[in-house]
Amino acid sequence: MSSEIKRAKKGWSVPVSKMATNTFNPIRNIVDTMKLTPHPDKPMIALSIGDPTVFGNLPMPENCEVAVTEAVKKRSFNGYAPSIGYEDSRQAVADYVSTPTSRVDSKDVVLASGASGALDLCISCLADEGDNILIPRPGFSLYKTLAESLGIEVRQYDLLPEKSWEIDLDHLESLIDSNTRAVIVCNPSNPCGSVYSREHLLEILQTMERKRVPIIADEIYEHFVFSGQTYYSMASLSENVPVLACGGLTKRYLVPGWRMGWIVINDRNDALVEVRGGLLKLSQRLLGPNTLVQAALPSILANTPESFYRETLEYIENNANVFYQHLSQVPGLKPVMPQGAMYMMVGLDMKHFPEFKSDVDLTERLVTEQSVFCLPAACFQYPNYFRVVLTVPTEKVSEACERMAAFCREHYKPINGINGKPDL
Amino acid sequence: MSSEIKRAKKGWSVPVSKMATNTFNPIRNIVDTMKLTPHPDKPMIALSIGDPTVFGNLPMPENCEVAVTEAVKKRSFNGYAPSIGYEDSRQAVADYVSTPTSRVDSKDVVLASGASGALDLCISCLADEGDNILIPRPGFSLYKTLAESLGIEVRQYDLLPEKSWEIDLDHLESLIDSNTRAVIVCNPSNPCGSVYSREHLLEILQTMERKRVPIIADEIYEHFVFSGQTYYSMASLSENVPVLACGGLTKRYLVPGWRMGWIVINDRNDALVEVRGGLLKLSQRLLGPNTLVQAALPSILANTPESFYRETLEYIENNANVFYQHLSQVPGLKPVMPQGAMYMMVGLDMKHFPEFKSDVDLTERLVTEQSVFCLPAACFQYPNYFRVVLTVPTEKVSEACERMAAFCREHYKPINGINGKPDL
Ligand SMILES: Cc1ncc(COP(=O)(O)O)c(C=O)c1O
Ligand SMILES: Cc1ncc(COP(=O)(O)O)c(C=O)c1O
Fold first, then answer.
1. Which residues of chain A from 283 to 322 reach within 8 Å of chain B, CB to CB?
2. ipTM of the modeled complex
3. What is the per-residue burial (b if ≥16 Cβ within 10 Å, else e) of A97-128?
4. What is the pTM of this model?
5. Which pLDDT value is given to residue A7?
6. For chain B, is the Cβ count within 10 Å smaller at the N or the C terminus?
7. What pLDDT does residue A415 have?
8. Which of residues 363-392 of A touch B (CB under 8 A)?
9. A34-to-A267, A369, B80 alpha-carbon distances in Å
């Protein structure tokens, strides 16, 4: 008996809410419909997975292990913490993120289940059904997922690949209306790997100040920047623009599964008085993140050796260079050199790949023929790019690049330019 | 310069969402407005706190510590788990909750951040703004908090203290209309300490089957029942009524801070096909609970010794008896003997306490005069009762009872009955 007949017979089919219906993960929606059948003779290399722990080449810092183990042993962190987190843990975050121009305190910190939980609290505290928030394009897909599940409209402002993915501020400004409740700025960026300069951040802040739109700063990658780059937190550069900064242990400490994130409330002239109260109330719905990790937080943030950060970054930057050097030689590919985070975007000159309808189509075939999986940038609402992750073991990076080069050489079709010469 | 002047000057005050505005924790709303000034000569005894770990007298099972420590050491559980949880952890929950009449599988389990997270997923998956769900009165206040923050109406069905807090099914049925999306049944119950008989559960299920309303079973206290009582899971007693059962480690394993909860999807004739999909999608908003605890779950559920469960229950049941024996002798108090969970409700014969306007008023004064804090049942939308927790160290229970007796003796006013005799 088929499901439908059974249900009809019993006459009982429980409907789902609009919220569930409207919750989409664009990555899943795209990836799950791709035919990902690797070439049988070539081991799969997944350059798609944003989880830096999957290859085992980037271990968490030793002291993270020690700190959590001690928290378990003490047996005094099994009870409920305040829903915004233990005072000591919040103070530790405050100390960690404070700068001379943006001092914060335990009372300005709300702990949450990962940066995802932090973003969810911020979005649901600021906007209602029918309101809109501005998000980057290309951008991390969760912003859209979280907002749309609550009936909040997302408006995507353009990032400019030719300017290292800076924000097209004119475009951003043109999207703002009286229902705009916040703009999310992701710096350093997933998927772009961009790190904004002080000047660009100041431009963004000026725009927001003029338009009176508060900022949700997704700074989960924070100090994850390559040599020669400096990371400035959004809050450190403005005395007037209220900033809810979202961060967490996930990326810098390589422990995404621990689900430890936070919001730092950078209030300016009491503009966020109600928001602060709102975040506190919303935090009571789920009662905060795991207490063992909360208890470990002060030690993790204070005692992780500089060498750990440096070595992790060197590894990733080296991979970025390997990718860049290889792929910029490949006809039809235009890698954009990243400045931080864990990702690189690679442009596809689609007119030279007439066999393929789209980045999704091309990356699917790259799996079939070369067993290399890059995430099509359609997942980030952006066409004709794909994203590679930089946390893959370096030997695999070289191997992947060679296979990508072979793939492109095979499918690349030169086009005669105006002067009868190939135009690339 | 006052806050308001500063804000006006800068002209920037960020409004909060309806969701944040509509999120209320009734317990906080009541408790925070009480004047809780203990008597200076008497150390405070808090019988109000639903966290079984605060007194240190009820430690978690040894093997919980071992299981989590091992998960940390293995270093292979730091990455992202699937958003509904690791397959093995879900299978462990399925094995733990399955009964001969309600077999479930890993695919029927969704892990979440505590039972709170599980309830939030269930409610937001089943109901929309404008719909209603039915919840018990007196009942755990989070149901109301979660639903109302999403604009979902709650309708409270009565529990009957004189029938050990069974559900008034006629009243419940009278509340159901075409917008009713679910009924939450809490068994064993916070705050009542009731454990429903097989017969009563079957009656509830019959009603729901007739009315075609699915059940959210809050079974976080599950096997936490006193001698002579048997716990039946809702799902084990019906072949036709779809049941989303919420549980977790919080209470039975005495680790509320770990935030490990679950939903067990007990589908019947594919009535929950869409709900299953909806829960999966909603779980992707926050990416599941802490992976270290997830990894420890199979060992915790399989290897916790029977003696741990037995000793914990004996301790609590003994406290229940001490409370009951003492308080049933006290003029004006009517304790209702609990059958499980960690709480006892105590009725207040308010006509004998004319000094006090309400249970809130009386319990506030009990703090002032005797430094004993019982949670007024107004926190559970129920008048003229208070709730005591049974997890307090036994010596404090006796001491608290004596002070409560002294308080009542002092404030109790006999009333002449019809025959000129006191009516109690
Ligand atoms: C830009 C960005 N923000 C937020 C998150 C979510 O982080 P978490 O795993 O801490 O929820 C991610 C994870 O990939 C991310 O890339
Ligand atoms: C009846 C009931 N359900 C759910 C919960 C929430 O449990 P958790 O701490 O796992 O979120 C509690 C906690 O007190 C409770 O009493």
1. 284-294
2. 0.95
3. bbeeebebebebbbbbbbbbbbbbbbbbbbbb
4. 0.95
5. 47
6. N
7. 80
8. none
9. 45, 14, 22
